[in-house]
Amino acid sequence: MVITVQYAARLVRQGKATVIGKTTDQPRWADRYNGKVYAILNRHDLQRIDHYEV
Fold it and tell me: Could you give the percent of the chain with pLDDT greater than 70?
């Protein structure tokens, strides 16, 4: 799920999430890339992974 940067920052400040990496929206087989980079957020409260655009 893609969330806003502000919401992600609030989750990290509250201790409910940790930033664990980053990824792009380019699949390995694509010949073009539109430049979007997403941070990967590990949500402790919901046991899931979310993303936000960097």
Answer: 85
Q: 41: Cβ–Cβ under 8 A, 6 or more apart, which residues?
A: 3, 8, 11, 12, 17, 18, 19, 20, 49, 50, 51, 52
Are residues 5 and 11 in contact, defined by beta-carbon separation less than 8 angstroms?
no
pLDDT at 31: 64
User: Percent helix, strand and coil across the chain, each rounded to 5?
Assistant: 15, 40, 45
- Strand intervals (E) in the chain: 17-24, 37-43, 48-53
